[in-house]
Amino acid sequence: MKKIIVFICLILLTGCTATYEINIKDDKITEKLTAIETNQLIFDDRNDSGWTIRDMFDATVNSIDDRFSNKNGKIKSINSDDKLGIEYTNTINSIENSSILNQCYINPRVTVNGSEVTLDTGFNFKCYEYYENLETIKIVLKTNYKVISTNADEESNGKYIWNFTKDSNKQIKFTYDKSVTNNSTNMYLIIIVIFVIIIVGITGYVIIRKNKNSNKF
What we know:
Elements: H1 2-12, E1 16-25, E2 28-37, H2 53-63, E3 74-79, E4 84-92, H3 99-104, E5 109-113, E6 116-120, H4 127-130, E7 134-143, E8 145-150, E9 154-156, E10 159-164, E11 173-181, H5 182-215
């Protein structure tokens, strides 16, 4: 995947942005890389051979061979009036096998303590050593498990986001409880609400019965 981003950024030259997402849902972990350039002014620039940036982009993406795609992975191009780029998706069996995390950090570690799982990348963010033309990098973690703690820069709609620039040297820490999902949390709330309704109903019934019995005398 490193070569894919390098291809795109070398063609675009002016720099591009990358967003890397890890989605942990139940026992399935998927990763998605999106690298794009939005500087429309360069898309139709021509080199000495008469090729435009858009022409070179299409030729490069089309020439990426099957070694970048496997039964779990897929690549598609992003080519519109206002952006050029690629989207790479893949299924992995552990966060430790994440392509981007292993390129950006020396030894990202995942530790398991009972039902709690913790990702700790350590410091020394290395991605810009590989991708010099990238302007910004965003790493996003999302899960349907209960999140215990995180040092994310921001949270938005259940997504935990770390923003990197060329001056960044930050650690990613993320702990979740794989025994509790958002769905199960919602179910617990539903059960509690039902229990409260039953108690209130029984209490009301008892009060009404007592009032009726007292009215007989």
